[in-house]
Amino acid sequence: MTANTVLRVEEAVGANKILDPRENEAYQLGGMVPDVIVSVDDEKDISSALLVASQHSLCVSPWGGGTHQFLGNTPSRIDIILDLSKYNRVLDFQPADLTVTVEAGITLDDLKAVVSSSDKLVPIESPAANSATIGGILATGRSGPLRYTYGLPKDWVIGSRVVSATGEVAKSGGKVVKNVTGYDLNKLYCGSLGTLGVISEVTFKLAPHHPSSSAIIVELDSLDKACEFSSLLMSKVYAPQGIHILNNSSEFYTKYGLSSSESYYLVILFCGRAPAVLRRVRESTNLLMENGVVVKEQLSDEKSDALIEHVTNLGSAGENIAEWEVLVNIMPDNFLQVWRQCETLSLKSPLEFIGDPAFGTIRISIQDSDDMGNAVIIDHISQLRRFVDDRSGALTIWRCPSTVKEQLDVWGGNQPELRVMARIKDQFDPNGTLNPCRFMGRL
Q1: Which among 18, 57, 68, 61 is positioned nearest to 38, based on CA atoms?
Q2: Which residue segment(s) compose the domain that 261 sits in?
Q3: 3-state secondary structure 240-295
Q4: Is the pLDDT of residue 25 over 80?
Q5: pTM here?
Q6: Is the pLDDT of residue 439 over 70?
Q7: Distance from C-alpha of 38 to C-alpha of 34, rounded to nearest angstrom
Q8: Same-domain check for residues 107 and 42
Q9: Domain shared by 4 and 110, yes or no
Q10: Looking at the structure, do residues 192 and 280 belong to the same domain, yes or no?
Q11: CATH of the domain at 270
Q12: Looking at the structure, do residues 267 and 346 belong to the same domain, yes or no?
């Protein structure tokens, strides 16, 4: 199959677009090495490769910066990888209209550099922003510490071009902010892990650049107090742009010289115009001090921007990547109850927690599972998943050893959801060409 696959793809896209086979090993997924890597620099490359794949029952996976290829179930098969990292041009930038159109392979850092030159902002966050591509961020739905204010990446997409499993190009939305024509299919592709189509081109609406930022770090002796002050701050007119509760995060403690005791730390983030940021920080600090809370650290501008990036990357990028990473999404009203349940996991390895009480997310990291074994962790996480499901939440295993993925669906999900998603998958990719078995329900 390998020789035939390479020949067919070469005929479709040209031999100059095929990477040296010695590089294929670097693109393996779930232990499987693809037959051929296509270096995409034009939308026609995507379309031609997918047309050949659909005609010959081959399986394809898009690849941007490779920063989130650990996500999802193990694919049933991978024949072709579409490397979009060179498909990275800015196609249109209209600062006055607050829009930008880019190819899917541009990195988040590069996109932000382009729009910031005109004092504009793409309010999207992701770990490893220097290598994470726009297409990958949208396909995975990853977000960051300011999600409470700015929402998810899909909320800023107003138009897109997507190549279907059979190589046809579909357009959704447009290049103007006031666009209400037709179905908003943009959001269907966001978070689908490349199982419905390959995102080729994206148009974002932009926000004004926030020239100033600040952050406050507060130490509290109980989770109840941490949640109480989080709710209190977020209810105020001077509410921060993001607030996070951290516990047992050794990397965070080391970087900021904090105690590694049983304390909970509030990381309170502010951004915007300088006068507004100063007022929010002053009012928030006064409120905390009136309630007997001591501010451990206050950071401004470059240092607070570095803190935001650090919290975004904790356990997900850099040197201390967790062996296990679990994401819990719940209603904010259930945040305290679910966090307490997470803490009851009787595992020998310390659990590191990062919670966003306003948005309703809890991220759990396990750095080393050698002392307890994967079977014990699976059992505990399965119990926690049932607890979360009963409260209308969702638990996703973002990262884990590849052998674990043979034993359970990392996405979870209930049967009504899966039936709907299976019908959508059948309409968009009836032959299972795109990322087969990687998504929820092994779609």
Answers
A1: 18
A2: 212-313
A3: CCEEEEEECCHHHHHHHCCCCCCCEEEEEEEEECHHHHHHHHHHHHHHHHHCCCCE
A4: yes
A5: 0.94
A6: yes
A7: 11
A8: yes
A9: yes
A10: no
A11: 3.30.70.3450
A12: no
Task: Mark which of 264, 279, 313 sits at the end of a domain.
Answer: 313
Residue 191 included in any domain: yes
Distance separating alpha carbons of residues 396 and 411, to the nearest angstrom: 5
Helices (H), 119-273: 134-140, 147-150, 186-189, 223-234, 250-256
Read off the pLDDT of residues 239-287 as tens digits, 9 standing for 90 and up.
Answer: 999 999 998 777 777 777 776 666 899 999 999 999 999 999 999 999 9
End residue of a domain, out of 258, 288, 313: 313
Q: 53-102 pLDDT, tens per residue?
A: 999 999 999 999 999 999 999 999 999 999 999 999 999 999 999 999 99
Is 195:211 a contact under the CB 8 Å cutoff?
A: no
d(CA 270, CA 234): 12
> Quick one: 334 and 308 in the same domain?
no
Q: How many CA atoms lie within 13 A of 11 on its CB side?
A: 8
Q: Say if residue 300 is in the same domain as residue 407.
A: no
Note the pLDDT tens digit of each residue in 300-342. 989 999 999 999 988 777 667 888 899 999 999 999 999 999 9
Asked if 225 and 235 sit in the same domain, the reply is yes
The residue behind tokens 């908003």 is 184
Whether 239 contacts 269, CB under 8 Å: no
Q: Is 220 helix (H, G, I), strand (E, B) or coil?
A: strand
Q: Is the CB of residue 68 less than 8 Å from the CB of residue 38?
A: no
Strand 80-83 relative to strand 60-63, pairing: parallel
Q: Are 253 and 260 in contact (CB under 8 A)?
A: yes
Is residue 319 in some structural domain? no
**Among residues 355, 357, 364, 367, which one has the least CA distance to residue 384?**
364
Q: Read off the CATH number of the domain in which 77 is found.
A: 3.30.465.10
Residue 62 lies in a domain: yes
Distance of CA 68 to the CA centre of its chain: 8
Residue 181: inside a domain, yes or no?
yes
- Which residues on neighbouring strands pair with residue 366, listed in sequence order? 324, 351
Q: What is the mean pLDDT of residues 386-393?
A: 93
- Domain holding 341: CATH number? 3.30.70.2740
d(CA 423, CA 55): 22
Q: 169-207: per-residue pLDDT in tens?
A: 999 888 777 665 667 888 999 999 999 999 999 999 999
Q: Pull the structure tokens for residue 29.
A: 């997924």
Quote the number of domains for the chain: 3
Whether residues 245 and 356 fall in one domain: no
What does the alpha-carbon distance between residue 313 and residue 315 come to, in Å, rounded to a whole number? Answer: 6
Task: Quote the CA–CA distance of 413 and 440 in Å, as a whole number.
Answer: 7
